Amino acid sequence: MLYDVVVIGAGASGLMAAITAAKADAKVLVVEGLSEYGKKITMTGNGKCNLTNDAAGDISHYHTDDEELLKGILSEVTPEALLEEFNSLGLLCREKNGYWYPYHENAGLVRDLLGQRLYDYGGQIETGRFLTGITSLLPSRDPEYDAGYRYIVGGHSARKCIIATGSLAGRVFSGDDNEFYRLLNHPSPIPFIPYVPSLCKCYVSDEEKKRISYLKGLRVKGKVTLLTDNEEVKDDYGEIQFTEDALSGIVVFNLSGYVSEAIGEGKTCSLKLDLLPEYSFEEMKSILEKRYADGLRYAKALLGGIFSDKLLNLLCKENGIDPSVKKNDLAIESALNVIRLAKAYKFDIAGTAGFKDAQVARGGVPLSDMTPELMHKRFREIYICGEVLNVDGECGGFNLHFAFASGIIAGRSAAKKAL
Ligand SMILES: Cc1cc2nc3c(=O)[nH]c(=O)nc-3n(C[C@H](O)[C@H](O)[C@H](O)COP(=O)(O)OP(=O)(O)OC[C@H]3O[C@@H](n4cnc5c(N)ncnc54)[C@H](O)[C@@H]3O)c2cc1C
Fold it and tell me: Which among 102, 183, 230, 347 would be 20 to 30 A from 42, CA to CA?
């Protein structure tokens, strides 16, 4: 069959690209490897699909190799423009603290709606077909080339091709034969930054396991700073979750891509927790000194109203204090040592979770290899969108925003040139 545009991958970006191209009257086919389309969309936002964020236009929430191009993409498809696009597709959305969800809070229905709209606009989806190559037609040998068809994709002729194959993260299948670069049947391999997991938990080193397992199940608000080779590189604030062998929670997820990168470069990594980020050490000192002067002189009285029991027990134990002793006066300096530890509570990190348990992957096709229309600079009429590009965002709707926004741009560009 002859198509104007063949899209490889029916995820968020591929479906949005296909809908955009089909709306512009291009003849579109989406080829999906899995037996169902949009599988990952159904898993997003704990089943509620956090599809964008009020701050999704701000590049400080993303990591990429080409900030200028990313700025252009995000200013072309702003959160308002994306919500308007969803509205035009029939999806009503609502906001909670800057995070946007479908009104019905059902990710499965978002997937169904995207598939339905694609059919409504005349597009088609072929599922259960993992592609392993794109073949270029040669001008001298192929009459179809003169009619504008450049590629054979899965047995179909295509004027344009959009690659939207996602990354290795959160994959429901295994194997590496879906790597992007294998798709291009070309003698020189396409430049590709190897993927590393991002938005996932960070495992502590073996030596730290006893310490962290005591805190298992605890959730506290705090500031987390990443140190690589003992240098502070990035920090974030939010809820920290302690598991048996790892640090987790959105704040840790947001730093995990940097952890993955650093470990890949052979650097040491640690996460330093400030469990009292709203107070300086000096402020805490004067609070404790006043309490001490008022006669609150044992560990539980001085510190029990600050930390939960579990945390207090561990912080005290690490300072040689028995928090259950009520009678003995605690030296103020010992109490201040607990505060010092709580403001710089460090865990050595051995690594991150693997791709299967990561929400996104860092790496992919360098964004700097793309034109502003999201066509690859070296491969004519090959467009690329979504997570297969080297752009990853923080938790909170930024990754779906980029997938949809880049899908709209790739679909629009491919359709424009196809007609
Ligand atoms: C558990 C989980 C929760 C998440 N929650 C959120 C959230 O709430 N908000 C948010 O912003 N982001 C979230 N994300 C991230 C977000 O889902 C992804 O960034 C986004 O879906 C990427 O879309 P994509 O279209 O680029 O890739 P994908 O959704 O991965 O789609 C790629 C598609 O291509 C297909 N494919 C791959 N190779 C081939 C091939 N060779 N031939 C044919 N088909 C192929 C795949 O089967 C897949 O269907 C979450 C991720 C996970 C794993």
Answer: 183
- What is the number of H-type helices and E-type strands within the chain? 13, 20
Residues 95 and 150 in one domain: yes
pLDDT of residue 183: 66
Per the structure, the count of domains in the chain is 2
Output the domain CATH number for residue 17. 3.50.50.60
Global pTM value: 0.95
Same domain, 211 and 143: no
For tokens 């939010």, name the residue. 238
- The answer to whether 37 and 192 have CB atoms below 8 angstroms apart is no
Residue 27 exposure: Cα atoms within 13 Å on the Cβ side: 9
State the closest ligand 1 atom to the C-alpha of 399, by its place in the atom list counted from 1: 11
For residue 182, the ligand 1 atom closest to its alpha carbon is 41
- The answer to whether 215 and 311 are in contact (CB under 8 A) is yes
8 lines ligand 1 (CB under 6 A): yes
**Residue owning the nearest CA to atom 52 of ligand 1:** 359
**Rounded to 5 degrees, what are φ and ψ at 413?**
-65, -45
Q: Give the DSSP letter string of 251-271.
A: HHHHHHHHHHHHHHTT--EEE
Q: Is 181 exposed, middle or buried (0-12, 13-18, 19+ CB in 10 A)?
A: exposed
d(CA 224, CA 216): 18
The C-alpha atoms of residue 336 and residue 288 are separated, in whole angstroms, by: 8
Model pLDDT, residue 311: 95
* Region 15-23 average pLDDT: 98
Closest-lying ligand 1 atom to the alpha carbon of residue 392? 19
Cβ distance 162 to 414 under 8 Å?
Answer: yes
**Backbone phi, psi, residue 291, to 5°:** -60, -45
Is the predicted pLDDT of residue 321 greater than 80, yes or no?
yes
If we measure between CA atoms, which residue out of 21, 90, 4, 138 comes closest to residue 374? 21
Q: In this structure, is residue 160 part of a structural domain?
A: yes
| 166 shares a domain with 119 | yes
Q: Is 416 helix (H, G, I), strand (E, B) or coil?
A: helix
Protein residue closest via CA to atom 35 of ligand 1: 9
Among 130, 168, 399, 401, which residue has the most ligand 1 atoms within 8 Å of its CB, making it the best to mutate? Answer: 399
Query: Could you tell me if residue 358 is inside a domain?
Result: no
* ∠ Cα 89 90 93 (to 5°): 105
Residue nearest atom 5 in ligand 1 by C-alpha distance: 44
For the chain, the farthest-separated pair of C-alpha atoms sits apart, in whole angstroms, at 94
Q: Are residues 246 and 190 in the same domain?
A: no
Residues of the domain holding 222: 201-353
